[in-house]
Amino acid sequence: MTAADGERFAYGPGTALVVVDVQVDFADPGGSLYVSGGEDVVPLVNAEVEAAAAAGSPVVFTQDWHPEHTPHFAVDGGIWPVHCVAGTPGAELHPALVVPEGAPRVRKGTGAEDGYSGFSELDLASGRREATVLGDLLDSHGVRRIVVVGLAGDYCVKATALDGAARGLAVQVPLELTRFVQLADGDDERAIAEMRSAGVAVL
Ligand code: VGL
Ligand code: ZN
């Protein structure tokens, strides 16, 4: 499978669906870091979740899950408005998102400077990058392929896809199932190019 093939993985136990950060603050037009069009992916992601779960694929949901103060936030020296503070309504998964019973949720950015990737976060105290449970979870299911969907294409979807490829997984990112923050014009194209050069199939 190469990016040029453009053919979607068949769902089944060796292929996981990773639903990234489809949370109120990103996907709701009233959210504090609303990603334009974020709400439009929800029904499409739901159909994907249903297809994946029906075929026996693991389906994992990530959540951006920040402390009240983190260098990730502009008020604390970072670049983002306050968003997805642990336990607040904005950090909840979008209410229209289908979450199968028992599906694992991986929370990241919990104390970290960035925490964009579902696979790891940067521990500020130690300066080390530490793994979340996602990698072990996928390994324990024997997953070799992942489909990464959700928000946002130029941040957490990209970082998760890149980390997945670096772990040796085959990774697909279907563009209709993501939206981009676009802090700067062209961030979407740059993110797509970066993913493709790392071997991610952006479809
Ligand atoms: C994200 C910006 C800040 C994301 C998270 O989920 O893509 N973007 N925190
Ligand atoms: Zn964040």
Automatic annotation (TrEMBL):
Keyword DNA damage among UniProt keywords: no
InterPro entries: Isochorismatase-like_dom, Isochorismatase-like_sf, Isochorismatase_Nicotinamidase
Enzyme class, UniProt record, top EC level: hydrolase
UniProt EC number: 3.5.1.19
Source taxon at top rank: Bacteria
Gene Ontology terms, MF aspect: metal ion binding; nicotinamidase activity
Location of the Isochorismatase-like domain: 15-202
Pathway assigned to this chain's UniProt record: Cofactor biosynthesis; nicotinate biosynthesis; nicotinate from nicotinamide: step 1/1
Gene Ontology BP term (one): pyridine nucleotide biosynthetic process
Keywords, sorted A to Z: Hydrolase, Metal-binding, Pyridine nucleotide biosynthesis
Family named by the database record: Belongs to the isochorismatase family.
Protein name: nicotinamidase
Native species: Quadrisphaera granulorum
Phylogenetic classification of the source organism: Bacteria, Bacillati, Actinomycetota, Actinomycetes, Kineosporiales
